Amino acid sequence: MAERPRVGELVWARVLELLPNGALLQLEEEEQGFLPISEASAEELSVGAEVVVKVIGYDRASRPVLSMRRVSEADREEAQFHREALEFRSVLSARALPISEEKQAEERVEWRLARWISQAEGVLRRRRSRPATGFLEEKE
In this predicted structure, what is the pLDDT of residue 132? Predict the structure, then answer.
């Protein structure tokens, strides 16, 4: 089971249902979150659309409360960068090159991609380790 997102974390979500007061979004696995209408951005939401949102708290039902307004352009770029890094890693790990083949150009590209992925993970670890300031967590 995946770890629940922390307040201040960016997550990718898919719009499940549009409600009069907001939208219900599907996060990882079985987790669903709520996006209040006041926290939705100017872009039009549609069922099935994938969006980057920030966790701003938890409601009484223990669902993540999400925000699109609080996601900056830099945050959006970082989330896309992370998603691409994961896709590259998946492609690289699934690709098996026979040792007997001498393909120096492909090896160099794969080494560069592997270095790029490790750098991306380092950036994300540093980003996650920074304390989320300016966010109010729900008191238990």
Answer: 57
- Band of residue 139 on the pLDDT scale cut at 50, 70, 90: very low
Contacts of 94 (CB under 8 A, 6+ apart): none
Torsion of CA 92, 96, 100, 106, to 10 degrees: -20
2.40.50.140, 3.40.50.620, 3.40.50.300, 3.60.21.10: which CATH number matches 10-67?
2.40.50.140
Q: Which residues, including other chains, have CB under 8 Å from residue 88's CB and lie 6 or more apart?
A: 113, 116, 117
- Rounded to whole angstroms, the Cα distance separating 89 from 117 reads 7
Whether 40 and 22 have beta carbons less than 8 Å apart is answered as yes
pLDDT in tens, 23-77: 999 998 788 999 999 998 777 789 999 999 999 999 998 899 999 999 988 888 8
